[in-house]
C-alpha cells in the first residue's frame, strides 16, 4: 500500500509539474509572440500602402517616384514627421474634405516603405475601432489565448475601451525596444478622427488617445498623428493639449492648382491644356484636389465644373432651405436651424463688398470669412455652426474662421442670394419663426362667467380698494 501510494503521488507530482511548466512556458511564449507580431507590424511594407498603390495607381516601392504627384508646401514637414525625425510632439492635421491630407500621409509612408509607421481608420463604433487598431498593430487582444478556454471569464469579457488601453500598453513595450535599437519613435496615424461620435464614449476614447500621445511625445517613444476634417476634434484636443502641433491643410494656391490640373490631364488624356482653360477651371472649382482630379478625368471639363457647382448648390438647398411665411409650426425647430444657415451664407456674400480683394493673381480665391464668435452672433445661436461644419456646408478653420466649405459652395451661395425675391423670402421666414415663438410664449386666460353671459361690476371701496360683484345672466326675470 505504501509503495502504491508513493507511486501514485510521484505520478501526480510529475504530471502536475509538467502541466505547470508547460503552462508557464506557453504563457511566456505567448507574450513574447504578441510583442514580436506587433513589432513586425512596423517593419517595412504595409497593407495600407498596397491598397493605396492599387486604388491610386501609385508606385509601391520607396525608391520609385510618382510623376503625377503634386508636391504640396506641407509635404516636407509631413515626410519628416512620418519618418520619425520630429520628436517631442504629436500632431493634428485639419482641413476640408478633399484637400489632400490623407494623400500626403500615404505619400510620406510610401517614401519610407512604411518602416516604423502604421495607419488605421477611425470609426464611430468603439468595437470596430478596436478591431481596426488590432489589425494595424497586428494584435489579437488575447482572443487566441488558450487559457480563456479553461476559465469562466476570458480576457475578452471586457469593454472595447479597456482593450484599446491594453493594446496601448503593448505598443509602449514595443516602442521602448525599438527606441533602444533604432533611436527613432514609432508613428501611429489615426485617420478620419471626425467619425468618432461627439458623445461620452467618443470623448473617453479621444481622452485616452490624447493621454497616450502626450506621454509618448514627452518620452520620444511614439508620435501619434490625428487627421480630421472637422473643427470639433481640435476643440476637444485643445482642452488638454500641451505638446500638440496643428497643421492646417487648405486648398492649393492658384499656381499649384493649375499645375496639378495640367499634370492630371496629361496623365489621363495625354493632353496639354492652355493657360486660358486652366484659368477657367480654377475660377469654377478653386484649388480643391478632389475637384481638380474629377474635372481632369472628364471629357468636358467646364461641364463637369458646372455639375460640381450644381451638386453643391443642391446639397445646400436640400439641407437648409427656408419655407417662407406659409411655414407650418411643426417644422419650426428645423427652420430655425435652416434660417440661421441661410442668414450666415447671406452675410458671407454681403461681406465680399467690404473686402479689399477677393482674388489674388498668385494665391487665387480669397473667400469671405467671419470669426467663429462673430458667426455665432450673426446666426444668434452658438450650437448650429458646428453641425453645419459636419455637413460640409461651412468650414471652421484651425484659426476659428468660418467660411464656405469650398469655392463651388461659395459660388452657390452667391447664386442663391442673387435670386429675385430671396431677401424678402428670408425675412418672411424669420418673421414667421418669430410669430410662432411669440404664440408659444402667449397664454390665454378665459373668464367662464363672462362666457356664460355674466358680467362684473366694479366700484371703488373704502381704503382705496376695488369691489367686484358678479351679475349672473337672468332667465325669465330670475337670476341664474
Automatic annotation (TrEMBL):
Occurrences of domain Orc1-like AAA ATPase (ranges): 93-218
TM regions (residue ranges): 6-26
Keywords associated with the record: Membrane, Transmembrane, Transmembrane helix
Pfam family, one: AAA_16
Keyword Transmembrane found: yes
Residues in AAA protein C-terminal winged helix domain copies: 318-437
InterPro entries, sorted: AAA_16, HTH_AAA, P-loop_NTPase
Residue stretches in coiled coil: none
UniProt-listed SUPFAM superfamilies: P-loop containing nucleoside triphosphate hydrolases
Cited PANTHER family: CHROMOSOME 1, WHOLE GENOME SHOTGUN SEQUENCE, ORC1-LIKE AAA ATPASE DOMAIN-CONTAINING PROTEIN
Protein name: Orc1-like AAA ATPase domain-containing protein
